[in-house]
Amino acid sequence: MSKIVPQKKIRILLGVCGGIAAYKSADLVRRLKERDFDVRVIMTESAAEFITPMTLQAVSGYSVHDALFDREAEAAMGHIELAKWADWILIAPATANTIAKLSVGICDDLLSTVVVASSAKCFIAPAMNQQMWASSVTQENISKLVSRDCHVLGPASGEQACGDVGFGRMLEPLEIAEQLVDYQQGQGSNSLPSNGLAGKRVLITAGPTVEAIDPVRFISNHSSGKMGYALAKAAQKQGAHVTLVSGPVNLTTPYAVDKVDVISAQDMLSAVKNRLVGCDIFIGCAAVADYTPVDVATQKIKKNDNDMQLTLKKNADIISWVAAQSKKPFVVGFAAESENLQQFAKSKLERKKLDMICANDISEPSLGFNSDNNRILILDKKGVQLQLPAASKEKIASDIIQQVSDRL
Ligand code: C5P
Question: Do the Cβ atoms of 206 and 262 come closer than 8 Å?
Fold first, then answer.
């Protein structure tokens, strides 16, 4: 657990709205306090249907504020004092209703009034049904809040309390607390993730593909998937909804990323085709096998002659298929080259009709395939060229995602 040692504890005013995820708020208060944040809680009226003020008072150590017109509360700490007390305001869970009110400045309860009355940095962790989250009105409201420097955390994808599956789940309390620590540590530096991809849908392919020869043998490559997974994490941290279509790798799925496991190039193509609608950005980071056996033997092939012939056929080029669609997303490719890096990358960018390409030199053993580091040359279709110096795949990934976000 990362712990910050601030000179003065950062004061977080936690606004709890009325969604089922409110039951996680007590845990969220604990996670924030463990990380040395000072936490006071405001609840909306409907939040009290899901969790009691008593519980949040017990974990925060302060009385819970829930009414705008309460003479006693106003005499102790009224809405203006609360607004001034807060260094940060965190709204978690943030419902579609509260997000809508904040986007237009309605002040009809204590929480919405305090937000408008405060100059504190505001963080929002949305939690709602996937359709409510996907609706254009919620997305417009979120964009307005982001443009006013509000930082959106999540939401995550997964099974929802109502039985639906999709984006809209509140991030887990531990993840929210860790993201706030990251934010605090990154303040004032370039490492601070922007929220430039809030609400955008990003589809990423990663890892190798595995092409079966018979039940025990296959053709594959050395791709570790590390770059694609780092890109998924970096895009998620910028607020995007990320789907990762991954070949077989030995990596943990980044938090709040929706992962689809595939084996062969054909599986990867089908998974991409099924998930492309509504996608804003496609990043083809997978090392897709160019060829696959024409026939897959149903039984293990026996060792007989000195030579054996294996006939291969060409696999479809997934990224070219994406770039050829009439409603195509912003398409980013990768080019792993062992010579003529710039020239080969440029011709790949043009031939595959990409918007941007990230080229890396695989002749250097300490970089690229299977390594934790990489050095990338970025080219885009407007002729802009940018060399990212050798760095960890995490750092390179966040720089690439920033470059994509800047071009959208
Ligand atoms: O042609 P080449 O394999 O060098 O191109 C690399 C780029 O094309 C990468 O972005 C890779 O993910 C993508 N690609 C693909 N489908 C293939 C082969 C490559 O999407 N069958």
Answer: no
Confirm if 292 and 269 have CB atoms less than 8 A apart.
no
Looking only at the bridges linking them, the beta strands covering 312-314 and 165-169 are unpaired
In this structure, the residue with its CA closest to atom 5 of ligand 1 is 335
Give the start-end residues of each E strand in 252-384: 258-261, 281-284, 291-293, 312-314, 330-337, 356-361, 373-380
Q: Does residue 229 have its Cβ closer than 6 Å to ligand 1?
A: no
Q: Could you tell me the pLDDT band of residue 192, with boundaries at 50, 70 and 90? A: very low
Q: Where are the alpha helices (DSSP H) in 265-390?
A: 265-275, 318-323, 341-351
Q: How many residues can be counted in the chain?
A: 408
pLDDT, tens digit (0-9, with 9 covering 90-100), for 342-360: 999 999 999 999 999 999 8
Positions marked active-site: 162
- As its CATH architecture, domain 201-298+310-407 has 3-Layer(aba) Sandwich (3.40)
Q: Which CATH superfamily is domain 11-186 in?
A: Flavin prenyltransferase-like (3.40.50.1950)
- Residue type, position 334, single letter: F
DSSP state of 65: B
Whether 64 shows a pLDDT value over 90: the answer reads yes
